Amino acid sequence: MNDSGFVSHCLELLSPLGGTSSRRMFGGHALYIDGLCTALVIQDTLYLKVDDTHRAVFERAGCTPFTYAGKTADVRVTSYYTAPEEAMESPAEMLPWARRGLAAAVAARAKTPPAKKKAAAAKAPAKKAPAKKVAARKAAKP
Predict the structure, then answer these.
(1) Total tally of structural domains belonging to the chain
(2) Please, are residues 73 and 92 in contact by the beta-carbon 8 Å criterion?
(3) pTM for the whole thing?
(4) Structural domain span for residue 69
(5) Which of 63, 94, 98, 128 is the most buried (most CB within 10 A)?
(6) Rounded (to 5) percent helix, strand, coil in the chain
């Protein structure tokens, strides 16, 4: 299956949980359910978001984490695990696994502080000196 065909298939598998979309990312695709990054597709492999709550369930099913080589040749393990092979056959089979992935994405978002506050603070104009001090400085100059 070609890259875009596999991504479309994965979006169809995740669709019972809400509106799905994808975005190219890091040589693969990020898959979203209602705006939450719930899965990745890298080299025609679907990886679902996992947290500590469900990690053991994925491991018992023989799922493996997505890993990549870091800058110093160390192996980095992510919070995304392969979907079970049997779940790749139909949305009904994928549903319990996709629910776990969505739950992990919701939990991760809850842990992350809102970015808007930081962005708003960075955009705030610099405070100006009070007019009295500026006037006093001008008067002190010869």
Answers:
(1) 1
(2) no
(3) 0.73
(4) 3-114
(5) 98
(6) 45, 25, 30
